[in-house]
Amino acid sequence: MATSSVKFLGQLGWRLIRVQKSRTDAFLAVAQKGSLRGLCRAYGTSGSSVTAKLSRVVQRSNTRVLGGCAFLLGGGIGLYQTFKLSVHQTHLSEDDLFHESDSETKLTLYQYKTCPECSKLRAFLDYYGIPYETVEVSPVTRQEIKWSEYKKVPVLMIEGKETLQLNDSSVIISAMKTCMIDKSKSLPEVISYYPRLTSTNIFGREVTEFTNRYWVMLNEIAIELIYPSKNARKQEVRWRQWADDWLVNLISPNVYRSPAEALASYDHIVRQGKFGPVEGVLAKYMGAVSMFFISKLLKIWYRLQDDVRQDLYSAVDEFITAIGRRRKFMGGDRPNLADLAVYGVLRAMEGLQAFDDVMERTKVKKWYLAMEKATREHHGQE
């Protein structure tokens, strides 16, 4: 609404200025050529004096018209500045995400702690200092989300004046960020911008996709205020998608690369996750064996090198190279959603050999430690 109003007022003002100027120039040109003098003499009036008088009348008319145009332009600029201030203030008060005056809103994250997608969402919530509780879901029974038609994690439940279930980490992040910036929109309204689509993959299984999942839904003015350039927004979307489509898929082939690494990975998963005594033992050994062989199939599927670590190193260095030497983060001086996505994915490997190797053999460590501090200290609240 604000964008269209600004455009309308601005265009109308400039159009009136151009039209008035062209009419004035044409009128005075005719007067100077003598056409008006001849007409005035026929009525017994001095042509030169009439021309002068008419010029003064036209000039006074111009003054009034230009004053009106200035009012229109000023109104457009004022409206823009008002919206700019509103967006700026909204961005500085991101804790009031759900537009509720009380503190009764409760966020509950249903997750697997070692899941990259869940880690990515936690990184976002931690960075912006949004309080939430976690419920660890059993990978075996998934009893904790039996009530949900959506059977994947993460699932974020928001309970306040109304209860809302949010699915898919990227959609949740995009929708929440949209509401942080533009408080004229409610979260239920924004979620409708990311429609859910179901289809069947090549294996005959039903898969769910969400359109627009990487886009923060803003109008043109907000985009100009939040992003330093149009390319910055496109880069954020590109690297968020890259984290989901490529980086995440390099995790399994690397953490289950050898029988020893597969066993260590499942030991880590069992200790961090929710397993019963018997389930834990079965998951550790049977899971390690099965995922070791599955990782080999994934290696073929994604056409990875014989040493899959090299693909992981290359991917991480590609991201750091894209940031460049002049920027601290992909978002500049502060992390953007691409930084948080990549950090969340890499953090899922902490405690494993693959993570230690990435820290030692790529350029990522400085950036990673800066991201770790930013999320731990909730720098998004500043």
From TrEMBL:
GO molecular function: prostaglandin-E synthase activity
Domain of life of the native organism: Eukaryota
GST C-terminal domain sequence ranges: 268-382
Annotated GO biological process: prostaglandin biosynthetic process
Keyword Lipid metabolism: yes
GO-annotated cellular components: mitochondrion
InterPro entries registered for this protein in UniProt: Glutaredoxin (IPR002109), Glutathione-S-Trfase_C-like (IPR010987), Glutathione-S-Trfase_C_sf (IPR036282), Glutathione_S-Trfase (IPR040079), PGES2 (IPR034334), PGES2_C (IPR034335), Thioredoxin-like_sf (IPR036249)
Keyword annotations of the record: Lipid metabolism
Lipid metabolism listed as a keyword: yes
A Pfam family of this chain: GST_C_2
PANTHER family documented for this protein: MICROSOMAL PROSTAGLANDIN E SYNTHASE-2, PROSTAGLANDIN E SYNTHASE 2
Family the UniProt entry places it in: Belongs to the GST superfamily.
Protein name per Swiss-Prot or TrEMBL: Prostaglandin E synthase 2-like isoform X2
Annotated source species: Chanos chanos (Milkfish)
Lineage of the organism: Eukaryota, Metazoa, Chordata, Craniata, Vertebrata
Gene: LOC115808461
